[in-house]
User: Fold this.
Amino acid sequence: MSDCIILGVESSCDDTSAAVVKNGRQVLSNIIASQIPIHQKYGGVVPEIASRSHVEALLPVIDEAIKQAGVQKNDLSAVAVTYGPGLVGALLVGLSGAKSLAWSLDLPLIGVNHLEGHVYGNFLSHPDLEPPFLALVVSGGHTSLLAVPDYETFQTIGQTRDDAAGEAFDKVARVMGLPYPGGPEIDRLSKAGDKTAIAFPRALADAPYDFSFSGLKSAVINYLHHDRQTGHVTPPADVAASFQAAVVDVLVEKTLRAAADHGFETVVMAGGVSANSALREALAAETKRRGLRFLYPSPLYCTDNAAMIACRGHYLFQQGKTSDWRLNAVPGLALGKL
Assistant:
């Protein structure tokens, strides 16, 4: 049986990425062109600038991915591309490039849900991982608990009712005057702080699996404003550590509750916030205490990347789930939707 070689394309936000993955789990190349330096001066992603940067970077990134993989274009089995969720302009750039390449090479096109791709990043870091498992997806735009009983099913158990965890990190970091992206900066600053210094709220104690970070974000911002108005100076590291602990405590509690209630013995984490050291340490300790297996991707597969898209595309391709040329960007694409 010949190898299945998938070219993945990812452009949902501010990273332009292309990757070549062999047989679903062997990464031959994974090229990422980051726009962080471009957006830092604005304190966040500017959608129009992101789209234009994708236009400039996409073809060189695809060419480099194929070159580094050591394959020829006619070796490819299919082209997988993110079609949602994400910024509509950014998604359209990746879609247009992937469609053009697939059309010119007479290859199948595979539309991939970006969030499902994040979950599949775990397969790249842990080749022995198999469903079923519980997935905690934590990113700038999403915070969800998913039951993954097999390779094709993503059942939402719980999700955020307002701000995502990553969004709260970035907004609090901005008010604190920390550089973009704010999440890693808060994680770094927290290491020097006292996480018990400030009693920030833990929201939605009455909802077993849902999350809410809007109230926590507002509480932190109000605390910072009060500090400035009164001239009181709380060490920024204490603010960062106390805020981060409030987020981590809720994520860990609800994840473990969902695992126990639904009988999962394996818990995986995915998304940009899964790189947070405090969250990793807390979940690792608590899952070990309960005899559960806990996995998370390597840092490279936590942030947006095309290898995870190609991995997800491989399993869709094996199921015969390809897309036609009418595939369009779906900025608000939900989990589990094809």
The longest strand covers residues 26-34. The domain at 5-119+301-318 is CATH 3.30.420.40 (Nucleotidyltransferase; domain 5). The first helix runs from residue 36 to 39.
